[in-house]
Amino acid sequence: MIQSNRNHVLIAGLTAFTLWPLVHMAAVAQWDINPWKLGGWAMYSVPVPRVEVSLQASAGPDETWGAVDRLPGPVGEELERFWRLRRSLGSLSRPNRLAERFFEHIPHATQLRVNVITLRIDPQTAMMKEEHIGFTFARDPSTP
Amino acid sequence: MGIVKALARLGEDDAVVRRSKLRAFEVILLLHLFTTTVWWASGGWWVPTGDFSWIDGPMLLTLTCVAVLTVMGIVPRTRTIALPALTALQVTVVWNNFPETANHTFLELSFLMLLTLWQPRDETEEALLLGSLRWMVVVVFVYAGIQKAVHGYYSDGVFLTYQLQHPGFHSLLSWLLPADEVVRISSYANVAGDGPYRITSLPLQALSNLSYVWEVAAGLLLLFHRTRVFALAATIAFLVITEIMAREFFFGALYLNALLLFTRSDLNRRLIWLFVAFDVWVMLVKLELLPAVTTF
Question: Under 8 Å CB-to-CB from B217, ≥6 apart: which residues?
């Protein structure tokens, strides 16, 4: 690589390294990304938020919702994967793939609700609080 | 180009010392990478005591390859082959752990990429390499401070109060605080409604606010010759205090190696034994020949 190209590569790399934390801050504010992750040098800037995910399902529109405790292997793996993504990537991760796997392996369920609870300390009140977000999916009638 | 000149200026040093320092930095980094690879390959600190099930055929083969590449990276004649391979390996590590990749893994990769892409051929290029590495250290330190200020958990000490539940933070911070308040915070199960994670204590508030001001100020003061010695002392002191509390020794070792690049003398080479001792200690802990006294 000739000298000027080497210099350009170096400057481009260092510029990205220098500006990335600003992008990181904006991404954290926009999508609730875990500040500890993705190389924004924000470790120890916030208490680590705790994320819990639970599932509820029903067998029809008029049926009651029940908690889903026992999951077939592939669905359990997908749940674990979603939980890991969610606690790092915040709202950038959605449980669509989890829903697909769920309906694939649990034929009698027609609706699924994925509940995401994030536990974090409110910096204003200094109190631990829960934030609930729910995602509801209905089985696609065209799929078996 | 102005940026290139500025970086070269930041990398100004006695030429012989600079070359020796850069080489020692690289060797320490490679040994560190080997140690962290072994540590994480074996499951880090999650592996239960007495569990050596991680040592199987593929793992042994992988670790042997990494060991060979590390040795090749240390030997000057073969480093140009080894460094790109180790960088590719580090990219794999980042990718496999993404998005949970630890920040120090990103920093290791950034240093490694720089050393791979920029293999200096003369004094001017060595200055540029040293200046670039120093700039990266400043960026990390300054942003770590800015992030603490931005997220709002340091202005009234909420973060440090919450961290009292962590043994490392507890050991250093609890003597600053009223005993009944320490008991109150320690009693929380961290469920919704617990709190407030706030203690009215002037020393704690001062320490909390000082921490990010210290990081930003000391980081910026590293850039200037006249303030560098003071800033270096301040940053190393900050690192030591952080390590006592957080016990993230992998990050601490990596960052100390990088901070020593700011010294006038060749401390990276002189203190290489310290880093080797750390790596050996980690290996002995992993092999259960020494007790695990901390988390990483």
Answer: B145, B234
Using one digit for the tens of pLDDT, what is the confidence trace for B111-154? 999 999 887 778 888 999 999 999 999 999 999 999 999 999 99
Say if residue A59 is in the same domain as residue A125: yes
Contact list in B for residue A38 (CB cut-off 8 A) is 99, 101
Q: Are A55 and A77 in the same domain? A: yes
Residue B174 maps to a domain: no
Instruction: Extract long-range pairs of B66-75: CB within 8 Å, 24+ residues apart.
Output: B66/B33, B66/B34, B66/B37, B67/B34, B70/B30, B70/B31, B70/B33, B70/B34, B73/B26, B73/B30, B74/B27, B74/B30, B74/B31
Cα Rg, chain B, nearest whole Å: 21
Whether B165 is in a domain gets the answer no
- Check CB contact of B117 with chain A, cutoff 8 Å: yes
Report pLDDT digits (tens) over B260-271: 999 988 999 999
Mean of pLDDT over chain B: 88
Tokens of A6: 């080497």
Q: Could you say which residues from 246 to 285 on chain B have a Cβ atom under 8 Å away from some Cβ of chain A?
A: 246, 248
**Predicted ipTM of the assembly:** 0.89
Residues of B in contact with A129 (CB under 8 A): 192-193
Q: Model confidence at B286, in pLDDT bands (50, 70, 90)? A: confident
Question: Is residue A144 situated within a structural domain?
Answer: no
Per the structure, the count of domains in chain A is 2
B210 part of a folded domain: yes
Please tell me whether residues A55 and A37 are part of one structural domain.
no
Do the chains contact at B197 and A13, CB–CB below 8 Å? Answer: no
Domain membership of residue B25 as a residue range: 2-157+199-286
Q: Are residues A102 and A37 in the same domain?
A: no
For residue B77, being part of any structural domain is answered with yes
- On whether the CB atoms of residues B165 and B185 are closer than 8 A, the answer is yes
Average pLDDT over residues B225-235: 93
* Together in a domain, A66 and A120: yes
Predicted confidence (pLDDT) per residue in A72-118, tens digit: 888 899 999 999 999 999 999 999 999 999 998 888 888 899 999 99
Mean pLDDT of B17-34: 94
Range of the domain at A77: 50-138
